[in-house]
Fold each of these.
Amino acid sequence: MPNTYTYAWTPDGYKGKKEGDPVDYSGGSDFEKLRQDDRLFVLTLKNGTVYLLGAMTVGEVVDTATAKRLRGRVYAGKSQHVLAKQGTASGFAFRPVPNERLGEFRFIARNGENGVKLKDGRPNPQTLRRLRRVTDQTATDLELLLARSGMVPPASVEANKLRLLTDANAVNAAMAEFKKLGRTPFLKKYGYEKSTRYQIFDGRDHFDSKAIAGAAVGYQHPERGPLKHNEFSGGEATVVKKLEALGFKVIEQGPGIDWTPEENAAIVAAYFDMLGIVARGEKLNKAAHNAALRENLQRRTRGSIERK
């Protein structure tokens, strides 16, 4: 799963940048930790205040010669250079980070977590200057701050918004509401269509993956609210990846997924079992048979089994 980092620029790092200019590159000397699809937030410290300058998703980390060939100009004295993944660079925004929010920032260290160190009542520049990995909650806070800056590029809006979902409990809450309301009322409430391919399976029931993810953001961030259906895309690379990273089982199903010989054999066996029950004059519980089948045929819904 991608990690999120902060890195602080000196004034020379943003000299000449205008608001809205792409934050698509940074030079440094400790970028060997960065991997493709990691998130990098750029900060700076001026007059005792921390400012958020922008962010990018890592495309690649290259040496000076490669960076010069690809960009033309690079920061002098830097041995490593990170280039943004296409379409993910935010615009440059000189936005102050509120002190109360800064105090909640948590960095991941060898001995656990720690916060921003203070020196004479001000943030210590050395705390921020080197590459620092942050916790999931701090990553979420940074994404929210960036979104409020108005400098998030359209091409990266989907990835940024889905990054807001980091809490499995929020997904469980959305699934509980799905069960309570029922599928149709739940989808109508949040404005989603039925999932045509990917569904969450909890061992008994199926849940529309995209709708659950969108609703879960609202549970985790009630002040922000749920994601609308047109704010992000579903599918294997987005929703499935996110839900699986949070520990949920997502299955592929739908009219485009052929039934396997094993699935067909299970359906036929269940059919003859039910015929035998009827022939013996015993009471048939079709719902129980359907539920038993779904435990083994996890890609199939109650309706698809009934239609089969």
Amino acid sequence: MNDVAPALRNEVTARRGRTRRLPLGNWERALLALLLLLTAGLIAGVPGFYPGFAGFLALTENFLPFGFVALGLTTVILTGGIDLSVGAIAGLAAIVMASLWSGLHVSIWLSALIGLLAGGLLGLVNGLIITRLRTEPLIATLATSFIYGSVGVAIAGDNPPSGFPDAFNRVGTGAIGWLPVQIVLFAILAVLFSLLIGRSTFGRRVVMIGYNTDAARYSGVRVRQVLTLSYVISGTMAALAGIVLAAYYSAVRPDMGDLLLLSTITTVVLGGVSIFGGEGSIVGVVIAVLLLGMLRQGMLIAGFSDMVTTMLTGAILLGAIAVKNLFAGRGTGLSTLLGRFRRSGTAPAE
């Protein structure tokens, strides 16, 4: 068993080294090409999709909150876990912020900070339930999503607060020059998460846990602490998404985060993060955020309903998992077969 830890460290280090030399792997290149083709097709084929450069950038305000959640959820999925409570956390954090501002007359900015802290605290609860009570992440976060959602409904009451100050609303709809504030915020966070996952000790431990939890534990990784922190990060980012949505609509609702879950899981998996953990990159997730966001906006502008876009999102999730599993050899002998051809120096016949 002592040989497992060095082997695991070497494997993770090799993966991180390849990521530094080749920021875009084959999967990310394919996604980027698809994003460019899709965007060009929508501009050419959907009237109103490109209302000028500034208006085109403003389209991102409709879907970047999904990206905030996806960045945090990536950390959890890389460990091999899942967080089904992100939508409920987003809604509850926004309700907490709005209630403090409306009911207790706390500064909107201080209220937003408390909302972020509340999201991190809810993520901490998730992490402690999973690590201390040894509960499966799927069951634990499904249960807490019901609890957090119910608490949000109780706090909001029949008439949730709305009409936030214009300065706060600019977080959701404002711009710095010609760049929407949401794009600037998302870009900064994407760089930070890329460094966190790709270059830090914490990121290496996250990948090690997802790749082989037992071997990570034997190599000295404090698995419980890393897992708990992952859920804290996920909760904080979900809360941020809820606060940005509140600024975008200048209103809150307990169910405002309900649409976040399916789309963000789809985004993370489409971005190349293995649903089994231990593999993936922030770059791929960022491209997937833009790809799914542009596709959804294009369909809505073209006249398709939310029901159709939701159905398509589910189909993309299944397709992304199937393709990744196929080429990773999950449940098939494809990767083994290809590996044998590579080692023998031959290629399968066309």
